[in-house]
């Protein structure tokens, strides 16, 4: 049942003989707005965590990030990624050297090496890479864009294959987000639905942890970055480092997550859709045909709002203060008369 302004708007809509008429505000100091009657049931919400539990989990996570092994890992990961312009210049120089070398070989009558030989050589080089370093490279990811790209790529890969065979990929277990410090909030508004989709498609239980206000500065300082508002960690990769200090801190973090009763984001309709897609083997073998989506029909109510909402709030506050003063003055005068 509607109350207040909604009830008034619904009554005006029912009494209006021509509902298709364009709505016009009665006052020139107001502008027309449209308020939706129905909300979408397909939206994912951020996990609700108390401030005490959020602060406890955040400080435990900071203690993990300040470990010497984690510090070296974060520094090496960011040091191995030079700036975009430097990468482009290096790639351009390598291509130019390859063209000059190929021209010299052809001029001297020497056959250039085949593509298969180059691939085999590169494959042998990759095979020499120690296996122990693989979990260390994929244990932690920093940055909103990097984590979003990682989740989207894994969802796309799992959509066309039943099981992921790449063991070197980062498999997130916990994602910490400073959503209270991000402005505008639309930069992180896609994360709950994206994580819910990842959990449904990839059959994992990734925890999304919103951090309290003011945590971005402490998080950036812990990883020695100028700005860092989002970090994803892989618990299995961290435990594979065979470091007793890191393993104990990861176990402590998991225990506190359990005490705080933080649950992974799950959506029933996503889980059922992913389960149906997995059960249908033909869906996994053949290309999914393009489907035309039906446009939603959500009713809106025509209303109005002040042009300067802040000025309107100040006027209301001033009127409330004036009424309070007058009420106090009348009470004082009544007491004096008695």
TrEMBL record:
Q: Where is this region: Disordered?
A: 309-338
Q: Name one GO cellular component term.
A: nucleolar ribonuclease P complex
**Where does the record place Basic residues bias?**
313-338
Highest taxon of the lineage: Eukaryota
InterPro entries associated with the record = Ribosomal_eL30-like_sf (IPR029064), RNase_P_Pop3 (IPR013241)
Q: GO annotations under biological process?
A: intronic box C/D snoRNA processing; rRNA processing; tRNA processing
Question: In this record, what's one Pfam family?
Answer: RNase_P_pop3
The molecular function GO annotations come to:
ribonuclease MRP activity; ribonuclease P activity
Its protein name is Uncharacterized protein
Q: Which organism is it from?
A: Meira miltonrushii
């Amino acid at each position: 049942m509607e109350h207040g302004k909604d009830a008034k708007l619904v009554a005006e809509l029912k009494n209006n003989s021509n509902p298709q008429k364009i709505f016009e505000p009665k006052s020139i100091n107001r502008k027309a707005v449209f308020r939706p009657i129905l909300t979408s049931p397909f939206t994912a919400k951020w996990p609700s965590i108390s401030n005490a539990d959020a602060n406890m989990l955040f400080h435990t996570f900071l203690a993990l990030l300040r470990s010497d092994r984690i510090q070296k890992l974060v520094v090496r990961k960011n040091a191995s990624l030079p700036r975009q312009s430097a990468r482009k210049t290096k790639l351009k120089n390598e291509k130019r050297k390859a063209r000059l070398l190929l021209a010299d070989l052809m001029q001297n009558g020497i056959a250039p090496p085949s593509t298969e030989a180059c691939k085999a050589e590169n494959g042998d080089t990759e095979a020499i890479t120690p296996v122990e370093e693989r979990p260390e490279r994929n244990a932690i990811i920093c940055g909103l864009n990097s984590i979003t790209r990682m989740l989207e790529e894994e969802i796309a890969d799992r959509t066309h294959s039943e099981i992921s065979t790449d063991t070197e990929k980062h498999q997130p277990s916990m994602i910490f987000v400073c959503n209270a410090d991000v402005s505008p909030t639309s930069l992180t508004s896609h994360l709950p639905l994206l994580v819910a989709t990842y959990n449904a498609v990839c059959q994992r239980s990734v925890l999304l942890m919103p951090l309290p206000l003011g945590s971005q500065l402490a998080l950036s300082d812990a990883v020695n970055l100028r700005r860092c508002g989002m970090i994803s960690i892989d618990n299995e990769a961290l435990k594979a480092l065979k470091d007793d200090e890191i393993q104990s801190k990861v176990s402590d973090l998991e225990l506190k997550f359990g005490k705080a009763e933080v649950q992974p984001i799950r959506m029933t309709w996503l889980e059922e859709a992913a389960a149906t897609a997995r059960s249908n083997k033909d869906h996994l073998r053949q290309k999914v045909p393009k489907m035309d989506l039906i446009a939603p029909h959500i009713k809106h109510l025509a209303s109005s709002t002040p042009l300067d909402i802040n000025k309107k709030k100040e006027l209301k506050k001033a009127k409330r203060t004036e009424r309070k003063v007058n009420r106090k003055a009348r009470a004082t005068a009544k007491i004096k008369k008695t």
